[in-house]
Design brief:
Ribosomal Protein L30, Chain: A; 3 strands
Length: about 60
């Protein structure tokens, strides 16, 4: 497993369920096309999986 995940918000959450919008916010993404680094753990992977159609994800080894 990678050390961190580089998560980029690629598609608007307009028209999607509120729980998906909340998941985007919980990941720390506030604006479209912004990127955050998160630890690679099962909790973060679960959130990413839920909104995988809105994100771009890369594994980063530091």
């Amino acid at each position: 497993m990678a050390e961190k995940l580089k998560i980029t918000w690629k598609k608007s959450s307009i028209g999607y369920a509120q729980d998906q919008k909340d998941t985007i916010k919980a990941l720390g993404l506030r604006k479209l096309n912004r990127t955050v680094l998160k630890p690679d753990n099962p909790a973060v992977r679960g959130m990413v999986y839920k909104v995988r159609h809105l994100l771009s994800v890369e594994e980063v080894n530091e």
